[in-house]
# Entry
Amino acid sequence: VEIPAVKSYSGSENLILLDALKDPGNVGTIIRTAHWFGISEIICSPDCVDVYNPKVVQATMGSIGFVNVFEHDLPDFISKNRQYLYAGLDMEGDSIYQKILTNKKIALVVGSESHGLSGAVSAHADIKLTIPPAVHSNKPESLNASIAASIAIYQLFSPVGF
# Structure
């Protein structure tokens, strides 16, 4: 398999932005989930793991061939592409199960599992969302980044979500 030529961003209906994700399994799983839900473009910050890292490619299970992944400075991208509602995953955000009323397209912004969204990217998010735990005692500290992204993708982009 050859690495495809760099394509240009097309302005897809829905979008995912990845902020400093370092784990190849997480990035590959998010690409695979995006493909499942018909999301055709992902923008990665320059400090994300290389999308063509063999572990990323393996984790996509072939979806890397169907989702265009671009590298871009995220604050710059967000400031130049205001047609989206930027929904950042954040432990201190509003419940993702609240209805988002908007006439804009949605861009889900996912930060790293250990650090969350970077300060610069967080400042550009229009709304911050969290996935509330089902139990409030003896719960894990957080969700894995790809699991949190998958739940958010389902909730935001699925026809049976909002």
